[in-house]
């Protein structure tokens, strides 16, 4: 659509994505996100994703549950019901990952994954509440974080 709200005529174009730096909208525009190569530092394919399995989340049909997603580059944490907030954390910022489990959580094979994050301005703690198989999630995050930091940086102490 143009600025007046009327549709512009459709021009037949090939289904080939424009080369990087040439989005088809003129010179100097970055390519649309779908055209960014799916490898290297731009890799945002979902590797793992779940919703919190808290009793409140289950009772609300998932509306009160936190949602968590991991890509090869970032951890995304979405929380909230009426107003949602999504935080993203670079995997290289994760430096210590622990598990907390109550007796009820252990019986349900879920647990809290406690992620300590070190950003340039300080540290914070992010809790992935009541996720299935918390030990596997912890191990996956540790492995991805170590890979993101590279062989020279280790745990970043």
Automatic annotation (TrEMBL):
Domain of life: Bacteria
Region (Disordered): 1-43
Name this protein carries in UniProt: YdbS-like PH domain-containing protein
Any Pfam family the entry gives: bPH_2
InterPro entries noted in UniProt: YdbS-like_PH (IPR005182)
UniProt domain YdbS-like PH: residue ranges: 63-139
Organism expressing this protein natively: Parafrankia colletiae
């Amino acid at each position: 659509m143009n600025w007046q709200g009327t549709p512009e005529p459709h021009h037949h174009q090939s289904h080939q994505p424009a080369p990087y730096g040439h989005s088809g909208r003129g010179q100097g525009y970055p390519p649309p996100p779908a055209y960014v190569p799916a490898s290297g530092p731009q890799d945002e394919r979902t590797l793992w994703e779940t919703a919190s399995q808290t009793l409140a989340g289950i009772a609300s049909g998932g509306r009160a549950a936190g949602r968590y997603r991991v890509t090869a580059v970032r951890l995304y944490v979405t929380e909230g019901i009426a107003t949602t907030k999504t935080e993203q954390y670079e995997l290289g910022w994760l430096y210590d990952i622990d598990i907390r489990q109550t007796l009820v959580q252990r019986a349900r094979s879920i647990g809290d994954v406690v992620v300590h994050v070190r950003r340039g301005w300080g540290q914070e703690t992010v809790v992935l509440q009541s996720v299935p198989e918390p030990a596997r999630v912890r191990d996956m995050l540790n492995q991805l974080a170590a890979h993101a930091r590279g062989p020279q940086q280790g745990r970043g102490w």
